[in-house]
Amino acid sequence: MGGKQQERILSGAALAFVTLMVFAFRDSVEPARALKIVLVGALLIGGVVAVAIVALHLRNMPTTPTALELSRRFEEVRFMSGAEFEVLVADLFEAMGHQVLVLGGAGDQGVDIVVDPRGKRIALQCKNHSKPVNNKAVQEVYAGAKHHRCVEARVVAPAGYTRGAIELARSTDVALCDAETVRKWIKRVDILEKERASETESDTKPPSPDNTPVNETIIEARKRAVWHPHPDDPPKN
């Protein structure tokens, strides 16, 4: 989408430049004045194009959602499609500072998202069903985790799980995440935001004995992980 918009901007600039050339080199215009018009016009057109492309780039840059945004989106989860719910979960883990790769679709082998906190690949299958999810989801993510070289497997389903899914998850060490789990993740994002705001505020204050350094464990937890790719991962944009 961004590439097509950029092409349209450049095409418009080219048309404007040609129009300028036709205007400048009319028979009634002196050559020196025509050249001056062309140079000034080219600079103006170039400046406008540069500003437009930068603005387009900034608009298309992904932004990390806030805890408030995530909370509001989760309130509407029952109206989301499966793909929209996957995006919500992916955004949530990115907001917690993790590397995220959304798979989804055909060939995902039962894994919708791979999360990589500090090199520890975790397979997630997202199920936004209106009823509790059965053991099929547990079977799929367990096998898919092995395929994608993940050390953990989780199912994320706000509606909860059947007794069969819970029993199978216990024997296979698959973590079952429900609506309450998602709310805890959102709360974690909120805590991280407050810590960042506190750090920013403390950086603007002069040093004092009361300003204690931020816990190193918290800093380490927020560092984005180094991605450990798998041959079957799609290319990251």
Question: Strand portion, in percent?
Answer: 5-15%
The top-level CATH class of the largest domain is Alpha Beta
Q: Major beta sheet, specifics?
A: 5 strands, mixed
Shape: elongated
As residue ranges, the low-confidence spans are 58-62
Helix content: 55-70%
List keywords for this structure.
2 domains, five-stranded mixed β-sheet, 9% strand, 237 residues, alpha/beta, Trna Endonuclease, Chain: A, domain 1
Give a description of the structure.
- By secondary structure, this protein is an alpha/beta fold.
- The protein folds into two domains: 59 residues; 174 residues, 3-Layer(aba) Sandwich (Trna Endonuclease, Chain: A, domain 1).
- Helix content is 55%, strand content 9%.
- A five-stranded mixed sheet has the order 1-2-3-4-5, sandwiched between helices.
- Helix 3 packs antiparallel against helix 7, helix 4 packs parallel to helix 7 and helix 5 runs parallel beside helix 6.
- The longest helix has 30 residues.
- It is elongated, with a radius of gyration of 26 Å.
- The relative contact order is 0.10.
- About 2% of the residues have low confidence.
